[in-house]
Amino acid sequence: MITRYTKTAMFLHWFIAILILAALFLGLSLEDMALSPAKIARINYHKWLGISVLWLAAVRLYWRLTHPAPAMPESMKSLEKKAAHFGHLALYFFMFAIPLSGWLMSSAKGYPVVYLGLVQLPDLVPKSNDLADIFKEMHELLAWSMVALLIGHVLAALKHQFIDKTPIFARILPSCCCKNKDKQ
Amino acid sequence: MRHILSISIVASLLFCTAQSFAQTVVMPQSKLGFTFKQMNVPVNGQFKKFQAKIAFDPKKLGSTVAELTIPLNSVDTGTADANAMLQNMDWFGVNQFPNARFVARKVSASSTGKFLIVGELSIKGKTQTVQSIASFKPSAPNSLAGVFEGSLTIPRLSFDIGIGEWKDESMVANSVSIQYKLQLQ
Lengths: 184, 185
Prior knowledge:
The complex is a heterodimer of chains A (184) and B (185). By secondary structure, chain A is mainly alpha-helical. Chain A is 70% helix and 2% strand. Chain A has six helices and two strands; from the N terminus they run H-H-H-E-E-H-H-H. In chain A, strand 1 and strand 2 form a beta hairpin. The model of chain A has no long low-confidence stretch (mean pLDDT 93). Chain B contains two helices and ten strands, in the order αβββββαβββββ. Chain B has a ten-stranded antiparallel sheet, with helices on both faces. The radius of gyration of chain B is 19 Å and the shape is elongated. Residues 10-20 of chain B have low confidence and may be disordered. Chain A binds chain B through residues 34-37, 40-41, 44, 109-114, 117-118, 120, 127, 129, and chain B through 38-44, 77-79, 81-82, 85, 165-166, 168, 171-172.
């Protein structure tokens, strides 16, 4: 019986989480910024973070499909389990959809993505202001939907851990972080 | 006397026309674009307006006339805030320097059937000698109508384009590539 995620899955979970949060805050900070070298640098860092999330999400999806996740706690109701599955599926969807919509937006704006300043990614659509506006809306809508879901994800985890007293943190944290919980 | 005067005016008009307007530039099919790199990201733009006086005959290169005047406020990068910013004194300073101007001084044929153009480019009160390689595709054999196109690379900082906080070449590369396509008729 598997009770914990693999070390690789744990690493991908937390590393991608950090990248997503960094991309999110960088993205939000661009909103009211006047055009300046600092803004251009931030836009590029935001794109690099997003493309990193995209390819890491592909690695993560492959890993998830080839390495079964630990079963959900018995204490969870069947509806809760369904909601959790759906939520996780949606988070995977966002890990692909948000970077892709950003990439589409970059292409439409006529500013191709040059990953880490080194590799120019192909443009997905030709330059078009109309398309750029659509993809920008899409990118923002998807990002805010993910934020709502992430809040749900964290609240649900906290509820299981502290209200239901089900030690789920141990599933996704390296053993060094939760020694006492590990003994259960 | 009146006759002679009017004849000479007509003659000089004809002469001028022959000299400066041997070809007209058909605007919708003509384009003046540029590419530069911003944190290694290639960004394209164009000047939506420009006037060109062209007299070009591959058999009489010595009498070539090529003069371009480019209203810099017609710059378009596809992004409104970038277009607005380029009008500022840190970039083109269009209030003080509304036009860029190019005048060809010498045109010679290269071995590959192309043409080497040496001329003077003035932007923002600075004039530099620049070189460009161009090609001409006549619309019919021996026709003076056709497509005249080429490119050149200029160092933006030699013209004080993008100064102040934009001076850093690792942010906006110094080298700017210009591409032109003139539909001559």
